[in-house]
Amino acid sequence: MKQKIPRYLDEAFSHITDEMIKTFIKKHKDYGKENILDIGELGIAFRISEKVSRLKNLLSKEVKAENETIDDSWLDIAVYAVIALLYRNSWFQKLKIKEK
Questions:
Q1: How far does CA 48 lie from the centroid of its chain?
Q2: What global pTM score does this model have?
Q3: What is the mean pLDDT of residues 8-26?
Q4: 85 within 8 A of 32, measured Cβ to Cβ
Q5: Is residue 57 in a domain?
Q6: What is the DSSP code string of the chain?
Q7: Does the structure show a pLDDT above 80 at 64?
Q8: Could you tell me the residue range of the domain that residue 75 belongs to?
Q9: Is 74 a domain residue?
């Protein structure tokens, strides 16, 4: 499917946040909450740090990575940042994903 090119920056931002939600839900269904609850906020920071290290490696190489794209890395970092904010508000611990 061809992606619609946004006309405004806020539309573009919304497109990215929609992708973040899809990524969060997909991975949450695969992994659940326990992996985050076990490691807490400091663990989330370490996960972001690992993603940043991988991203720096991807950006410094001239060859494309086969298993993860640069966009995937940025998206994962953004999702982890939102999870950290949810965690700090105790929402991650208490709330569930709405069933469709």
A1: 9
A2: 0.89
A3: 96
A4: no
A5: yes
A6: -PPPPPSSHHHHHHHHHHHHHHHHHHHHHHH-SHHHHHHHHHHHHHHHHHHHHHHHHHHH-SSPPSS--HHHHHHHHHHHHHHHHHHHTTHHHH--PPP-
A7: no
A8: 40-93
A9: yes
29-90-50-57 Cα dihedral, nearest 10 degrees: 80
How confident is the model at residue 59, as a pLDDT? Answer: 92
In a domain, 31, yes or no: no
- Tell me the pLDDT band of 99, cut-offs 50, 70 and 90: confident
User: Tokens 């994962």 identify what position?
Assistant: 76
Please report the pLDDT score of residue 1 as a whole number. 44
For residue 24, being part of any structural domain is answered with no
Q: How many CA atoms lie within 13 A of 59 on its CB side?
A: 10
Domain count, the chain: 1
**Residue type present at position 33:** K
